[in-house]
């Protein structure tokens, strides 16, 4: 039986659309060798959820977009700089950016904005692509492949106050100075902050 290339054409189509719409951005390709059990898990997700990958947002809030201080707070407590919203997912010990899986029929930008609303109750607007990560899982004996696409966006804060989805997150915070324990996927962007 010849190898299958699951999601390859759809990932190509989605990448082409992003590259037509946004200024040039890096596309990182990661390859993983999959055992039979791993391959079955990956293809089960694709079959059950039409899983294609995920979309995430690096959300910046300007100093003047911070909520007003309550009357009991001293003036010195006012935000003194721009902030970025980071989350800590359950089962992890590092800070990352909000986002998640792309649902059937969604483009990456819609998925990213929806996931941010679901996870932290913040409205944001995607403005650019930071980078895309194409993950290719290859069955170790058949050569069949599963292609997934993870897109990381720059986004602007629109409105809302952080309220976490506790079934998925341990916390969320607007950071001015970034913590040391960052998810590897956002370390490059963090070097350019603020």
UniProtKB/TrEMBL annotation:
<dbReference type="Pfam" id="PF00293">
    <property type="entry name" value="NUDIX"/>
</dbReference>
<dbReference type="InterPro" id="IPR020084">
    <property type="entry name" value="NUDIX_hydrolase_CS"/>
</dbReference>
<feature type="domain" description="Nudix hydrolase">
    <location>
        <begin position="50"/>
        <end position="194"/>
    </location>
</feature>
<keyword id="KW-0378">Hydrolase</keyword>
<dbReference type="GO" id="GO:0016787">
    <property type="term" value="F:hydrolase activity"/>
</dbReference>
<dbReference type="InterPro" id="IPR020476">
    <property type="entry name" value="Nudix_hydrolase"/>
</dbReference>
<protein>
    <submittedName>
        <fullName>NUDIX domain-containing protein</fullName>
    </submittedName>
</protein>
<dbReference type="InterPro" id="IPR000086">
    <property type="entry name" value="NUDIX_hydrolase_dom"/>
</dbReference>
<dbReference type="InterPro" id="IPR015797">
    <property type="entry name" value="NUDIX_hydrolase-like_dom_sf"/>
</dbReference>
């Amino acid at each position: 039986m010849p190898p299958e290339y699951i999601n390859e054409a759809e990932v190509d189509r989605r990448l082409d659309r992003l590259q037509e719409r946004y200024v040039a951005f890096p596309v990182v390709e990661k390859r993983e060798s999959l055992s039979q059990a791993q391959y079955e898990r990956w293809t089960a997700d694709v079959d059950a959820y039409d899983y294609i990958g995920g979309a995430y947002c690096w959300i910046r809030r300007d100093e003047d977009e911070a909520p007003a201080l309550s009357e009991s707070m001293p003036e010195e407590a006012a935000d003194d700089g721009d902030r970025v919203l980071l989350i800590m997912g359950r089962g992890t010990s590092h800070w990352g950016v909000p986002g998640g899986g792309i649902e059937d029929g969604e483009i990456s930008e819609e998925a990213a904005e929806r996931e941010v609303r679901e996870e932290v109750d913040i409205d944001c607007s995607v403005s650019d692509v930071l980078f895309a990560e194409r993950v290719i899982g290859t069955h170790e004996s058949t050569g069949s492949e599963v292609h997934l696409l993870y897109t990381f966006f720059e986004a602007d804060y629109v409105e809302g106050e952080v309220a976490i989805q506790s079934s998925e997150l341990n916390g969320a915070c607007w950071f001015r100075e970034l913590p040391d324990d960052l998810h590897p996927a956002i370390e490059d962007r963090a070097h350019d902050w603020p």
